[in-house]
Design a protein that fits this description.
Blueprint (H helix, E strand, L loop, with lengths): L3 E8 L2 E7 L4 E6 H6 L7 E2 L4 H14 L16 H11 L7 E2 H11 L7 H9 L12 E2 L12 H10 L17
Parallel strand pairs: 1-4, 5-6
Antiparallel strand pairs: 1-2, 2-3
């Protein structure tokens, strides 16, 4: 039986749950509720591992406004489509954003399809198990709307603030203002 590892990281956004298979980071979730909703194995050790130590150092630097390199392996479980979307998200530069539609265009090109639904991309973005490091918070609506973040809109805005992202043209839709 493979042992998996879990660590709680206290952050300015609340507790983050880090999960690992010892060699790679497999998850980064906002608190117990989100983590428990995932299809993760049930047996976890809270023993410190090298990868969890590296992720902790990365998060320390990130929350202090630095742009740390990702010097540890990531292993996100998902479908081939989800993994392609997460690859596109991972390429968004620090402090920059892109739209669901732009990612859909790129994914369609990679899959040699005429077009791809931005909603399908949104579903894949929303199922990203390694938040912050696979920066799904950098994806916004085409009209500048700040929507669709599993950790909540206020956390998404805080992450964009940490990265000093120019948000002057962004807005939160009225239906999500209390999210």
């Amino acid at each position: 039986m493979q042992i998996n590892y879990k660590k709680i990281y206290p952050s300015v956004l609340g507790d983050l749950i880090l999960t690992s298979d010892e060699k790679s980071l497999t998850g980064l979730y906002f608190g117990e509720q989100e983590w428990q909703n995932q299809k993760e194995p049930l047996i976890y050790s809270e023993e410190e591992t090298e990868v969890l130590s590296k992720v902790t150092a990365w998060l320390d630097d990130y929350f202090n406004g630095k742009q740390p390199p990702i010097d540890f392996p990531l292993k996100a479980n998902g479908t081939p489509f989800q993994k392609l979307v997460w690859q596109k998200i991972s390429a968004i530069p620090y402090g920059k954003t892109t739209t669901y539609g732009q990612i859909a265009t790129e994914v369609a090109q990679d899959l040699k399809k005429e077009r791809m639904s931005a909603q399908a991309v949104g579903g894949a973005v929303g199922s990203n198990p390694i938040s912050i490091i696979v920066p799904c918070h950098r994806v916004i609506g085409k009209n500048g709307s700040v929507t669709g973040y599993g950790g909540g809109i206020s956390r998404k805005l805080t992450l964009l603030d940490i990265e000093k992202t120019d948000q002057s043209t962004y807005f939160v839709p009225k239906s999500l203002e209390n999210d």
